[in-house]
Design brief:
globular, about 230 residues, alpha/beta, single chain
């Protein structure tokens, strides 16, 4: 596993659970709004501060019975060839596992689900699937995204879909299309974009959504998804 960071404690990233966060190194997208640009490159950063799989597993052995789970995010975890064995090691230690993914690798997602290695999955929905390149920096096959969505919705594993709302990219029509894509989901989260520190300079010129905009988008999405949450 190529790892780029580690957070030993979080109260917010795994709903209802006390967890730590493992950040994998490398991503197959180039999202302009990304706030972890240091994790995009697939080469390990190196250095004494860079976590290793061994160090993380050793840490977790000291937290058995204290932490509930581990959040694996990135970067994009599913581009890691060693992801499945790593998830199995986490489960063998008795931890619940949450995976954060962009949904572009349904075969890996399917394998993790089929093996019972996931307890919660959060999948990003970045735009109307037909317009992904504008925000993701590369073209993405809408059918691949739909395959990941369908896997999650039929898996029986707790999951959510989430969108980072960027005024100027996401208008009411886009929110409606994304909500239609997520129809049937148990949870859809609209989270506010923050311009400071965005990966691409052009995105730093966009404004964060106002509370009123998020509330309006929440109402629109709520026509199609039962449980919509807007986070400022």
């Amino acid at each position: 596993m190529l790892l780029g960071g580690f957070l030993p404690l979080t109260f917010a990233d795994f709903p209802g659970r006390l967890a730590c966060v493992v950040f994998t190194q490398g991503c197959n997208l180039r999202c302009g709004y990304c706030h972890n640009p240091q994790l995009i490159d697939r080469h390990a950063p190196g250095g004494a501060e860079t976590p290793t799989e061994t160090r993380i597993l050793d840490f977790l052995k000291t937290r058995q019975g204290l932490l509930d789970g581990v959040v694996v995010c990135g970067g994009e975890p599913t581009v890691q060839p060693a992801l499945i064995p790593f998830l199995q090691r986490l489960k063998n230690l008795g931890f619940l596992v949450k995976l954060d993914t962009n949904g572009t690798n349904p075969p890996v997602l399917r394998e993790a689900l089929d093996r019972g290695l996931l307890d919660y999955v959060a999948m990003d929905v970045k735009h109307d699937p037909a317009r992904y390149a504008a925000i993701a920096g590369v073209a993405v096959d809408p059918g691949v995204l739909a395959a990941s969505r369908d896997l999650l919705m039929s898996s029986g594993v707790a999951c959510e879909f989430r969108t980072t709302v960027i005024p100027g990219f996401h208008d009411e029509a886009a929110i409606e299309e994304m909500a239609r894509f997520c129809r049937g989901a148990s949870r859809y989260v609209l989270q506010a974009f923050r311009p400071k520190g965005a990966f691409k300079p052009a995105f730093r010129e966009y404004s964060a959504p106002s509370a009123e905009q998020l509330q309006q988008f929440e109402r629109i999405a709520g026509r199609l998804v039962d449980n919509v949450e807007a986070c400022c």
